[in-house]
Structure formats: C-alpha cells, structure tokens
Amino acid sequence: MKELFIISERILDALNIQKERYLLAQIDWSQRLIGVKGARGSGKTTLLLQRIKFHLSEAEKPLYTSLDNLYFMNHTLIGLAEEFAVQGGTHLFLDEVHKYPNWSRELKLIYDQLPSLNVIFTSSSILEINKGESDLSRRAVKYILKEMSFREYLNIKHNLDVPSFDFEYILKNQKDVALELKKQVNFPVAEFKKYLKYGCYPYSFEGVDNYYPKLLDTVNLMLEIDVSSVENIPYQESRKIKKLLVAIAQSAPFTPNVSKLSERLGFSRNFLLNSLKILDRAELIHEFFTPLKGIGAFTKPEKLYLNNTNLIYALAQSQLEQGTLRETFFANQLKHIHEIHLVKKGDFIVNRKYTVEIGGKNKTTHQIKDLKDAFILKDDIEIGALNIIPLHLFGLMY
User: Fold this and answer.
1) How far is residue 319's CA from residue 330's CA, in Å, rounded to a whole number?
2) Which of 101, 104, 334, 391 is a Cys-bridge partner for 338, taking CB atoms 3.0 to 4.6 Å apart?
3) What are the residue boundaries of the AAA domain, all occurrences included (predicted)?
4) Which tens digits make up the pLDDT trace of 329-367?
5) What is the structure's pLDDT at 209?
6) Which one, of 86, 56, 149, lies nearest residue 335 by Cα?
7) What HEC string does the chain produce?
8) Torsion from C-alpha of 304, 306, 308, 311, nearest 10 degrees
C-alpha cells in the first residue's frame, strides 16, 4: 500500500486548480459512503483532490487512488480498505470505481464491516450505481458533477469570486445579477463567447490550441472504454453508437424519426433507443420530452441536443448555428438542477412553470406575448429589462 500513498502525494502536489469546484460545498461530507458521478473530463478527480488538499489534515490520513491502478491486479479493494483502516486511515478516495469488476459488492462490504472508514468514490456518468450486483441505494449518498458553468469558468480562469444565483432569483432580480457580474467582469458577453467554445471542461486551462483534439479523445474514450466496461457492449457496438452521435451532431437540434434513422444506420429500434439513453447518461446528448409524456426505457425522445456547446464546436464544426448554441447552453446549465421540457410556445418550459424563448439581441416578445411567467433570453446584451434577460446570466447558477 505504500506505493499508493506515494502516488497520492505526487498527484496532490501537482494539483493546479485552486478555485474549488461548486459541488464541494454541496456534498454532505459527514456521510460514510459518498458517490460522485460525472462525465469523463468533467473534473471528478480534481474534486476529490481538492477535498483532500483543502479540507483534510494529515492526521486524518486521507488516501486517493484510482481503481485502474495496476495495484489492483494483485490486490482487492476490500483488502486495501482493511489494511488502510488498521493503519489508522479514515478517508479513502476511490476514483473510477466502474473500472474495478466487483466494485459494488466490495463497497457494500467496506461500508458494513469498517464503520470507522469514510469512503468517497467516483464513477462514470453512464454507471447506474443502484444497478450493481449489490444494492447501495440505502448506503451511498449520490451526487452528480456537471461540467464547468460559465461562472466556474470565469472564477478559475481569472481568479474571481463571482457568486452563484438561483434560477428564480435571476428571473426576479436580473438587473442586480448583471451589475454584480459587471463589477468583476468588464466584458461578460465576450467572455461568454469564449466559454461557449472551450469553457466546459477543466482541461481547457491547459491551453486552447489542443483543446478540441483532447475533447474528441475524451468522447472516444467514453464510447470505447466507459460504455464497454459499464454496459458490457462489444467494441463494434460502441463504434455504432459513435456513428449515431455524429449523425446527431450534424443535425442538432434533432427530431428523431426512429424508423428512418434505424434503417439509415443499420440499427434495430431497441438498439437505437437504448443507444440514445446511453449517450444521454454519458452526458454527450440531452434528450427532450414534453411535460405530459411518460419517459420509459423505450420512449422516443421528441428532440435531441448535444450536451454542451463545446461538443458542438468539436463535432459539428462547419454546421454551427447560433440558435442551436444558445439553446444548448441554456439546457446544459439547467440539466440535473431544474426540470426542463419542450413547449409549443417558446423554446423550453422550466419547472413546468416558466416559459423561455431564446434568441439574439433583436429577438422580439411576439411568441410569448400572451403567456404568463414567460421570458425572452437574449444573447449579446449585458443588461435586460422587464421580461428580457441576458442569456449568459443563466451560467451563474452553480
């Protein structure tokens, strides 16, 4: 186990993102078993390392390790936990548990047999934690780590302290929010354009010149490794799912015709619908439904978007449309935080109450003029008025 401590210390020393990820303040760290799901590249490792480096002392003997370490070729996870506890360890941070074959059974044993140990683990967003071979639903407290918001991007890039604002607070106090942002950011619209291009994943701070190749590599690893390890899908099947993703990217926002798409790609209907669910769980696309429609395992989504605007720039390339970028940004910032559906009048309805229509600075209120609790979200403006709100303010929610 000594080599794991050496590696852990080396990785902690190399941590270069000092601004804490938003989820650190939201997790109930008193729980003994905590699971954090998130897309590959979203910053799960950084989150664990920040918890150790900024909040735990050496006396608490924290240990970070990834479950794809070669150590686990000859050692078990339960064996590591037992030895760690005997040596006085109290906080065990386990990265990428889905890469370890018996992860759920051994985490259950650790929880039941080692009550002095706090375990925090991360997994691919594809993994459905409660569907492992052992039920962790009554033991593990689960969280989802989203990609960086516009707010996080600003704070990390420029070492700022832009506060977060609740969705309804922005609707009711948009001028105050805009002025608060303006205090710290001179040109918020210009920064917003940069965020749309390369602000979603923390590795953008390593340099933007190679950002899209890295992002495409991340997508490939999600589909060829994560999907295969979590869903037990053969490599050739994962290649088919990649083909589906490219088809969506070239047409998003995409209204799927399942029969035609199945025929075009050579998929069965069930394989196609299951692949869409996998891409949604992988945080690569966002499936949309109307509020009244039930969402079963084989329910056809009514519209598909890529999950964030950086993916549009990387995958769609020449087929960029400003309207798609705006709608994708808004949907992404609300995903996992608020309920968001399609609506006949307007673009989206949030929490089954607030209708939003999204557009450029010349967008009119005509489409929502007869609706209650309806708002126009405009790009390219710094301050709005009445029910017209700058779109980028909704990047300050986390």
Assistant:
1) 19
2) 334
3) 31-154
4) 999 999 999 999 999 999 999 999 999 999 999 999 888
5) 93
6) 149
7) CHHHHHHHHHHHHCCCCCCCCHHHHCCCCCCCEEEEEECCCCCHHHHHHHHHHHHCCHHHCEEEEECCCHHHHCCCHHHHHHHHHHCCCCEEEEECHHHCCCHHHHHHHHHHHCCCCEEEEEEECCCCHHHCCCCCCCCCEEEEECCCCHHHHHHHHHCCCCCCCCHHHHHHCHHHHHHHHHHHCCCHHHHHHHHHHHCCCHHHHHCCCCHHHHHHHHHHHHHHHHHHHHHCCCHHHHHHHHHHHHHHHCCCCECCCHHHHHHHHCCCHHHHHHHHHHHHHCCCEEEECCCCCCCCCCCCCCEEEECCHHHHHHHHHHHCCHHHHHHHHHHHHHCCCCCEEECCCCCEEECCCEEEEEECCCCCCHHHCCCCCEEEEECCCCCCECCEEEHHHHHCCC
8) -170
91: pLDDT confidence band, cut at 50, 70 and 90? very high
How far apart CA 35 and CA 30 sit, in angstroms, is 13
pLDDT single digits (tens) 137-169: 789 999 999 999 999 999 999 999 999 999 999
For position 227, what pLDDT does the model report? 83
**Which residues fall within 8 angstroms of residue 266, CB to CB, at 6 or more apart?**
240
Amino acid at 368: I
pLDDT score of 269: 87
Sign of the dihedral defined by the CA atoms of residues 377, 382, 386, 392, in that order: positive
Q: Is the pTM of this model over 0.90?
A: yes
